[in-house]
Amino acid sequence: MAVPRVLLLLSVRPEPVSFAQSVCGLLGAGPNPGPWPTHCSLKRGQLILSDRPFPEASARLPIQRPPFCPFAALALQPLAPEATLPTNRGVDLGVAVLVQSSDQTVLLTRRTRTLRVSPNLWVPPGGHVELDEELLDGALRELWEESGLQLPKDQFSWVPLGLWESAYPPRLSWGFPKYHHIVLYLLVISQESQQQLQAQIQPNPGEVNALMWLGPDVAAAVAATENGTETAALLPQDLPPSVP
């Protein structure tokens, strides 16, 4: 098995999580999607999680999963004979970076429709964290690779926001999962305005086919819609026509 990227400290020492195990479930999650507070050690290229404090923990972050998480569903039923889940892999580590401009807009990118995982989906820039790579460095590298945006380290601040248990395909009805990540979301607050940042962007056409900056009203409107429900009555009336 490759070097484990996500480990759980549930007893004496950290143990790697196998691909088919639900990380949220092992941390004591019930049937709800969460979030649940989790103690984390954000080491170079590795994440250690626990449901209780431990000496190496550097942050206490919420962890969450979608209500249709396939690993949660698999934990509640016997594994079908035709299930083809990897047996020699653990859970991978990913990072997503929410870049906020000085005038409080946030960057989203749309993945190209030719990508194998989550094509044509609006997401923050991000991706896989390399082995022995600091999590912030991985986030900034992915930001640069996808958008061409490089942030000088003396012109931004950052803070970890939370963790997301991610699978692809995202629903068991779409097939057995082939990818399993814990994604760390980072908020990176730039000292530059949206206009200044936009002037530096050069999207990678192999990964990104569109981008947009969300203002607070649009971001709140997106967050107000959960699991595909309609909340038109709650949305401001002056949103761009494409948002509702």
Automatic annotation (TrEMBL):
Q: Which InterPro entries match?
A: NAD-cap_RNA_hydrolase_NudC, NUDIX_hydrolase-like_dom_sf, NUDIX_hydrolase_CS, NUDIX_hydrolase_dom
Biological process terms from the Gene Ontology for this record are: NAD+ catabolic process; NADP+ catabolic process
Keywords linked to the UniProt accession: Hydrolase, Magnesium, Manganese, Metal-binding
Asked whether the UniProt record includes Manganese among its keywords, one would answer: yes
PROSITE patterns reported for this sequence: NUDIX (PS51462), NUDIX_BOX (PS00893)
Q: What is the catalytic activity of this protein? A: a 5'-end (N(7)-methyl 5'-triphosphoguanosine)-ribonucleoside in mRNA + H2O = N(7)-methyl-GDP + a 5'-end phospho-ribonucleoside in mRNA + 2 H(+)
Q: What is its EC number?
A: 3.6.1.62
The Swiss-Prot or TrEMBL record lists the needed cofactor(s) as: Mn(2+); Mg(2+)
Asked whether the keyword Cell cycle is assigned, the reply is: no
User: Gene3D superfamilies recorded for this chain?
Assistant: Nucleoside Triphosphate Pyrophosphohydrolase
* One of the record's GO molecular function terms: metal ion binding
Q: Which superkingdom is the protein from?
A: Eukaryota
One GO CC term on file = peroxisome
Pfam families from the UniProt entry: NUDIX
Q: What does this protein do?
A: Acts as a decapping enzyme capable of hydrolyzing monomethylated capped RNAs (in vitro). Hydrolyzes monomethylated capped RNA after alpha and beta phosphates to form N(7)-methyl-GDP. Shows low activity towards unmethylated capped RNA.
Q: What is this protein called?
A: m7GpppN-mRNA hydrolase NUDT17
Q: Which organism is it from?
A: Octodon degus
Report the gene name.
Answer: Nudt17
